[in-house]
Design goal:
Organism: Desulfoferula mesophila
Order of helices and strands: EEHEHEEHEEEH
Helix content: 40-55%
InterPro entries: Ribosomal_bL9 (IPR000244), Ribosomal_bL9/RNase_H1_N (IPR009027), Ribosomal_bL9_bac/chp (IPR020594), Ribosomal_bL9_C (IPR020069), Ribosomal_bL9_C_sf (IPR036791), Ribosomal_bL9_N (IPR020070), Ribosomal_bL9_N_sf (IPR036935)
Function: Binds to the 23S rRNA.
Radius of gyration: 32 Å
Largest sheet: 3 strands, antiparallel
Number of strands: 8
Keywords: Ribonucleoprotein, Ribosomal protein, RNA-binding, rRNA-binding
CATH class of the largest domain: Alpha Beta
Strand content: 15-25%
Distance between the termini: 107 Å
CATH architecture of the largest domain: Roll
CATH topology of the largest domain: Ribosomal Protein L9, domain 2
Strand order of the largest sheet: 2-1-3
Number of domains: 2
Mean pLDDT: 81
CATH superfamily of the largest domain: Ribosomal protein L9, C-terminal domain
GO molecular function, one term: rRNA binding
Low-confidence stretches: none
Length: 195
């Protein structure tokens, strides 16, 4: 069924948009809550007449949100996650975890406003994510996905083992080279004694 949104519905659309939804969602939730109207010819004509009023209201809301956007712009958020070899995460980092990290910094952002176009993050690294505070106001934040303490300790231990193994190989190669150099000299010394 087609409906006209009367207010922003996260994940669906902005006020004034005509969207397609399932019948039950439209009839049983959006329309009774006052979030939408049926997309009849009469309502579409009424919407066209009221579009200026809707746009003016959105512009006023956008101005209010811009102050918050200025404080949020460029914020760096760090999320720790357990990772394996190559920086691949066990699991993923979702917008819910990012919203919790933002809340710890004092920003109350709904998780659905954090836009993750490629889906959940599955590798360590630094990412730039847009946050849609308002239909007209989008701000970028920096997200650093770092290894947690357990992963960092395991990596340090693996690096130490690899370094010790490399040192042992160097020592083994040196001993083998020394033994090979001494072996021909001993054979030459033994040959005259046999005659």
């Amino acid at each position: 069924m087609k409906i006209i949104l009367t207010q922003e519905v996260l994940g669906l659309g902005d006020p004034g948009e005509v969207v397609q939804v399932k019948n039950g969602y439209g009839r049983n939730y959006l329309i009774p809550q006052g979030m939408a109207l049926m997309a009849t010819n009469k309502n579409i004509k009424t919407l066209a007449a009221e579009r200026q009023r809707i746009e003016a209201g959105q512009a006023r809301e956008a101005e209010k949100v811009k102050a918050e956007a200025a404080t949020l712009a460029g914020v760096q958020v760090k999320v720790e996650a357990r990772a394996g070899e190559g920086g691949k995460l066990y699991g993923s980092v979702t917008n819910m975890q990012i919203a919790e990290a933002l809340a710890a910094l004092g920003f109350d952002i709904d998780r659905r406003r954090i836009i993750m176009a490629e889906g959940p993050i599955k590798k360590l690294g630094t990412y730039t994510l847009p946050v849609k505070l308002h239909p007209q106001v989008v701000v970028d934040i920096e997200l650093e996905v770092a290894p947690d303490a357990e992963t960092a300790a395991a990596k340090a231990e693996a690096d130490a083992k690899a370094e010790a193994k490399a040192e042992a190989e160097v020592v083994t190669e040196a001993v083998e080279a020394t033994e090979e150099a001494e072996a021909p000299a001993e054979e030459e010394a033994e040959e005259p004694a046999k005659e």
